[in-house]
Predict the 3D structure of the following.
Amino acid sequence: MAFLRKHWFDCGAAIALILLITLFAAYGADFGNVRFILWLSLASLFLHQFEEYRYPGYFPGMMNIVMFDSKQPDRFPLNEQTSFVVNVVMGWTSYALAAIFGEQAIWLGIGTMLVSVGNFVAHTVIFNVKAKEKTIYNPGLITSWIFFLPLSLYFFYVIVHQHLATPIDFVGGLLLGGLLNYVGIIKTIEWMADEKTPYIFPNRCLPPKHGISK
């Protein structure tokens, strides 16, 4: 468990590579297939998390500082345990289920795509506005632009064009997306916050100028 807590994002990047090779071998480049798009979405989630937590990897500290004005950005309110729960337990599970069920539960796909859109908005607008810094980059921004936004827009184009979703599916997906974005991320971080947590991020997970001397 300790290994996974510290390296789940590295494992995710490796899975993404295997998934992409398998996906294109099985489907080719079938961008009209909803299940293909949703598997790509799962791979994009892995790559997005790698950018956030490994290279350049200082998203955790930035999140704590910018969104929560933390005085302990290496552990509060977001810590390694919370990060694992939010990204792996909730993130990997919801995106994988959406891909597995595909058209059979299209509302799952709608919900996860709204999480991707939420990440795009957060990295592009919210973090930069709240940080009040001149730089426009933060870990997760590049993959949000390259993967999350294009895939999300194309997914909604396909399901509307192919009439794959009913109004109930859209309502269910909207509710799920709201729950995952707010309860699954923000509220979970708040609920699991612990200033005395042993699950502390390494110094590399803090923005360069906020590094803690060891």
Remarks:
- The first helix runs from residue 2 to 27.
- The chain is about 70% helix and 0% strand.
- The chain has one domain: 2-210.
